[in-house]
Amino acid sequence: MILKKMIKQNLAIILLSSVALSACAKPTSNPNQNAQTPTTKANLSAEQQKKLQQLLEKTKKNLILVKGGSFMMGDFGPEHSIDKLPYAGGDSSPLHKVTLDDFHLSATKATYADFDVYTDVTGQKKVGVFDEFSIKYRIPTSAAGINWQQARDYCQWLGQQLNLNMDLPTEAQWEYAARNRGQYVLYAT
């Protein structure tokens, strides 16, 4: 019984760790939202429409509800470890209470294949294509190598397509989910 529970917890941790690369979350209100989110082209081919629909269905299927709640965010080592020492260096935030509403995260990473659909239907250049070598050896199922703004634009564009308010998770949302709803997990994933 305990082994089954541990396996379930480990699977949950593995799923949440994959979210780090591509998590899209339903955000709290953010006045600085990007007004330049790319839009889908008006005249998509039948093939583009099919690929877009497949991406949207995959995205909906992979959204995981994270129930909101309150937790102590930051370096909890001094208060909750045997040796009472901090777990991290000078960049760590002191422990402070944070309360979050429910939000969603994607259970899977955003891949180059996902981004290829996005860039194709929005008329952008493919990401992760630098030269002939990168084109030849770019693996479609690998996590897309993108910057923060590209990730945010992608999440917000997906939200527009699904008629959902989507964005990258905040630091608090990510820590809450990675620590299994705020539990004191030393190596949160």
From TrEMBL:
Q: Enumerate the Pfam families for this protein.
A: FGE-sulfatase
* Keywords in alphabetical order: Signal
Annotated Polar residues bias: 27-46
What is the superkingdom listed in this entry's lineage? Bacteria
Single Gene Ontology MF annotation: formylglycine-generating oxidase activity
Segments for region (Disordered):
26-46
**Full protein name:** Sulfatase
